[in-house]
């Protein structure tokens, strides 16, 4: 059984069809990139997968069960790490929020916090406050907090969109390493074609203003580039360039 199934999922908001019926499956451990122009419903699709909004039609199923609301098995990483973190709590205090919410005994907090901080390379910064860290480090804290939740699925909404190119590439590689280690299943929204291909096992391309002839789902493309991926070598592969051109055309530029 697929870990996540989108079965003719349609979403209307404010009386407007944002997402026309969309179907695809996600397998355990897969990295799914979701791409499309502004307003095509990427965030809405992710929010439906996390149980924050209900589908107007069809069903999203997690391990075969319809999603009816938020669950601790599904973590959500927001683009705006500044708003996601509590500025008056230290790094470890922010990570502890997930453990407090889960009712994890306080005696287990320290080990659990340091385990996830080691994973994201921030153990040495545990006592600092978010305001003392760079944007990339703050985003790592948010990811660590999600990992502390021990989710099965991680929804990431343009998590690196506000970061500079160097930081972004570093975090892309750190994320790929983490996913390879943990076998987490990830849905990752981005505006960036190269980021979508570089990270993804599969790319879901959406189009804005769906119609019966041109539904929301523009393309589902499998990325069969070798792993581990490499910022220089992968992006020079003829297959990478071919996928980039194909997606560019699907998204209406070609
Ligand atoms: N609660 C809401 N009520 C009414 N309309 C909404 C609501 N939330 C989002 N929308 C509209 O739905 C459309 C899709 O929004 P969504 O944020 O999912 O798009 P997106 O593809 O993630 O866009 P971006 O790339 O700009 O973040 C937009 O036109 C937005 O204005």
Automatic annotation (TrEMBL):
A Pfam entry, by short name: ABC_tran
Keywords noted in UniProt: ATP-binding, Cell membrane, Membrane, Nucleotide-binding, Transport
Keyword Nucleotide-binding: yes
SUPFAM superfamilies to which the protein is assigned, alphabetical: P-loop containing nucleoside triphosphate hydrolases
One example GO MF annotation: ATP binding
Top-rank lineage group of the source organism: Bacteria
Location of the ABC transporter domain: 4-233
UniProt record similarity statement: Belongs to the ABC transporter superfamily.
UniProt-listed PANTHER family: ALIPHATIC SULFONATES IMPORT ATP-BINDING PROTEIN SSUB (PTHR42788:SF13), TAURINE IMPORT ATP-BINDING PROTEIN-RELATED (PTHR42788)
Protein name from the UniProt record: ABC transporter ATP-binding protein
Organism: Mesopusillimonas faecipullorum
């Amino acid at each position: 059984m697929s870990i996540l199934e989108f079965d003719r999922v349609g979403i209307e908001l404010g009386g407007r069809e944002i997402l026309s019926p969309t179907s695809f499956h996600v397998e355990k451990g897969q990295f799914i990139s979701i791409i499309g122009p502004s307003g095509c419903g990427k965030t809405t699709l992710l929010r439906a997968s996390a149980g924050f909004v209900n589908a107007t039609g069809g069903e999203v199923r997690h391990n075969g069960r319809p999603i009816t609301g938020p669950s601790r098995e599904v973590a959500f990483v927001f683009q705006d790490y500044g708003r996601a973190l509590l500025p008056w709590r230290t790094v470890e205090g922010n990570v502890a929020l997930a453990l407090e919410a889960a009712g994890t005994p306080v005696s287990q907090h320290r080990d659990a916090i340091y385990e996830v901080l080691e994973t994201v390379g921030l153990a040495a910064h545990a006592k600092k406050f978010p305001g003392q860290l760079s944007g990339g480090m703050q985003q790592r804290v948010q990811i660590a907090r999600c990992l502390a939740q021990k989710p099965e699925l991680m929804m990431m909404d343009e998590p690196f969109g506000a970061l500079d190119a160097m930081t972004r590439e570093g975090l892309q590689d750190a994320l790929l390493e983490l996913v390879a280690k943990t076998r987490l299943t990830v849905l990752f929204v981005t505006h960036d074609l190269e980021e979508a291909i570089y990270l993804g096992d599969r790319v879901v391309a959406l189009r804005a203003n769906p119609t019966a002839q041109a539904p929301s789902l523009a393309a589902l493309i499998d990325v069969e580039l070798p792993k581990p991926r490499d910022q220089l070598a992968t992006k020079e592969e003829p297959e990478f360039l071919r996928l980039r051109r194909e997606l560019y055309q699907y998204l209406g530029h070609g």
